[in-house]
């Protein structure tokens, strides 16, 4: 369904309006008719959204606004049980690395790598002098 400029979507429960379907869906799932789940540590303010409380605490109480990273947020590969930080890195790991043979080889030592970038960083960090000498001799 396409909407023209200025047209908004309305929640059928509370008549709040939204710019797009994604925002409306989040409103229905987490906010509409729900009790506040997040509370300020410094006063009686409460909200249905974590972001709103973090912004309140920053603006009203000077609490630094930072994104929390919990160890539980990491994902685990079902094949090798490696812990990865998000869905994208897990997908890349499964597609290009997990259970695969190394396809990149160092020209200066026996190191093998499954990722080109890792090999590139290895050469930069371990063999910079050799690389510069080779280029100079050429």
TrEMBL record:
<dbReference type="InterPro" id="IPR013087">
    <property type="entry name" value="Znf_C2H2_type"/>
</dbReference>
<keyword id="KW-0479">Metal-binding</keyword>
<dbReference type="Pfam" id="PF00096">
    <property type="entry name" value="zf-C2H2"/>
</dbReference>
<feature type="domain" description="C2H2-type">
    <location>
        <begin position="9"/>
        <end position="36"/>
    </location>
</feature>
<feature type="domain" description="C2H2-type">
    <location>
        <begin position="75"/>
        <end position="102"/>
    </location>
</feature>
<dbReference type="GO" id="GO:0008270">
    <property type="term" value="F:zinc ion binding"/>
</dbReference>
<keyword id="KW-0863">Zinc-finger</keyword>
<keyword id="KW-0862">Zinc</keyword>
<protein>
    <submittedName>
        <fullName>GDNF-inducible zinc finger protein 1-like</fullName>
    </submittedName>
</protein>
């Amino acid at each position: 369904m396409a909407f023209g400029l200025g047209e908004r979507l309305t929640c059928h429960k509370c008549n709040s309006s939204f710019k797009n379907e994604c925002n409306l869906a989040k409103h229905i799932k987490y906010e509409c008719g729900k009790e506040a789940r997040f509370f300020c540590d410094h006063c009686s303010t409460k909200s249905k959204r974590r972001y709103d409380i973090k912004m309140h605490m920053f603006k009203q109480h000077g609490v630094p606004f930072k994104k929390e990273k919990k160890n539980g947020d990491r994902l685990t590969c079902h094949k090798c049980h490696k812990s990865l930080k998000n869905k994208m890195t897990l997908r890349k790991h499964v597609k290009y690395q997990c259970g695969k043979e190394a396809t990149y080889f160092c020209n200066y030592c026996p190191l093998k790598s499954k990722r080109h970038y890792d090999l590139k960083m290895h050469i930069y960090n371990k063999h910079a002098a050799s690389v510069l000498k080779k280029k100079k001799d050429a």
